[in-house]
Amino acid sequence: MTTLKNRLQEDLTAAIRSRDELRSSTLRLTLTAITKEEVSGTSARELSDDEVQKVIAREAKKRRESADAFEQGGRTESAARERAEGEVLAEYLPKQLSDEELAAIVDEAVKEAVAGGAEGPRAMGAVMKIVNPKIAGRAEGGRVAAEVKKRLAAG
């Protein structure tokens, strides 16, 4: 079993013992999503820490989107619950890049792509190929794409 999945299960046990309903339900749902991912496909397999982290990131994104939807629908208590669950999941994800850190990485990638001959609409894909491995889960894809577009338009 991966170390991250172990940590989730140990934290779930601790949350259940301390009667922390929010934490235990969030971790239970996340572990279910991980198990579902493990058994999907043609044969069951164990996920690596990176794959487990991607599942956690996907679950956290669902919480953010749900919170926004509840907020727009006027259901503030449900939105607050979703945000709280997102905060629990954020503890298991790498620290997110600040806007300045993201801008610096994107600037560097734009220069690299332009030096490699990328220009116009094709530059977006070239820059994203350079940026994605450097960011590796520390910034949401939409945020990265918006920053790349902004830099390409300015440059």
What does this structure look like?
This protein has 155 residues and is mostly helical. Helix content is 77%, strand content 0%. The protein has 7 helices and no strands. Helix 5 packs across helix 6 (121-135).
Give the SSE string.
HHHHHHH
Low-confidence stretches: none
Q: Got a strand count?
A: 0
Q: What is the number of helical segments per DSSP (H or I, 4+ residues)?
A: 7
Biggest sheet: strands, sense, closure? none
The coarse silhouette is globular
What's the overall average pLDDT, rounded?
82
SS-based structural class? Answer: mainly alpha
Helix percent band: over 70%
Strand proportion, as a percent range, falls in: under 5%
Radius of gyration: 19 Å
- First and last CA, distance: 47 Å
Topology of helices and strands:
Blueprint: H1 3-17, H2 21-39, H3 49-72, H4 76-90, H5 99-115, H6 121-135, H7 141-154
Q: Care to give the gist of this entry?
A:
This protein is an all-alpha fold and 155 residues long.
Keywords:
single chain, 155 residues
